[in-house]
Design brief:
- The protein is an alpha/beta fold.
- Among the domains are: 126 residues, Rossmann fold (3-Layer(aba) Sandwich); 150 residues, Rossmann fold.
- It has 16 helices and 8 strands.
- The chain is globular, with a radius of gyration of 22 Å.
Amino acid sequence: MEKVSYKQAVPVFTEAMKSTHKILIPNMLPYHFEILCEIFRQKGYDIEVLTTEDRAIIDEGLKHVHNDTCYPALCVIGQFIDALKSGKYDVDKTAVLITQSGGGCRASNYVPLLRRALAAEFPQVPVLSLNFSGLEKGNGLEVGLKTLLKLAYGIFYADAVMSLYNQCKPYEKTVGQTDQVRDECIEYVKKALCGKKSGKYKQIVGKLLSEFSKIERKDEKKVKVGIVGEIYVKYSPLANSGLEKFLYAENCEPVVPALMDFVMYCMVNNINDAKLYNRKKGAAFAYKLVYKYLLKIQRTVIRLFKDAGFEPPHDFEHLRSAADKVIHQGVKMGEGWLIPAEMLALYESGTENIVCAQPFGCLPNHIVGKGAARAVKALYENVNIVPIDYDPSATKVNQENRLKLMLATARERLEAQTEQEEIAITE
């Protein structure tokens, strides 16, 4: 009997399926994916972002992925299988899509894991990969230069909406006004990206700043909490047990670094590979050109934020110089040098309290997260860092108790700082 190879048995997403199949994607980035998906919808793809967050997803993931595999894999694969079992979709006309950065860990191995899980229950469902590192050739979304540019602009705009929302929501005088402005801005960005002015970033970011500036805010100080860590757990409410919602409920201001930082981090790593290991020098030259262009846009966005009176995103060159204080830029497994860089940049911009969200057992991220925290504290003794592990056996109660201990210290420091400022004013 002739043996059928694994690759021969894999269903492939064809051009004809573009008009017949719905494509599901996991909800890693609530702001970003809703905006970025609109770009592909305009190209004729029927894409839906899964927003389910219940425990059944994790249990479904455990059925198909070994529990020693990282938590994000369980979440993503479990969410796909759970959706396909829900009865909402025609599984004969459904595909699934994940993004891959091409790193040395889960970013390269999710597609085989996902395919094996699907083979057990839904072998007819194709898997698509959105990546720019040469993975999964012939079974991904078709992305040309024009689409790439729109995706880059979309990330900048989504980062802006996310940051402005977090800076306004805890202070709004009219409950719900920030949510309304956020929803209106997301619709505005989606229309702008699909029109002829998608690259008018000064105009579009200016509009976002103008709309959020109209929100009436209370003049009071709140505990600011930065969120760093593994990219999926950092952003996904499914993976981090609704971390941002918890911080709002605790009367705090979440500070979440921009996704564009991770994009530029990946580019710089390719540039560094050419310098450190003499790899792909031609590709590194192209990355340098793109990096310079993105940095130019980022610095314009920073200026616009400052002019409007909002806390701006971090300048990526500042992040790189911050990383150099504690770790070499050649350390790139997991989220590598980006995690300690974001810790330092957050502290230096006034966010002293930091949650490092990590999948339990993810060795690279424990090294650059927990391992680097001591070096960060050696530089800034007042930095208040708490690492939180997320995995199938971790309870939300234990996670929130650790967060509350961190917040208790943060509130004591804020009260002491406020008292000192009041004394200084009276004197």
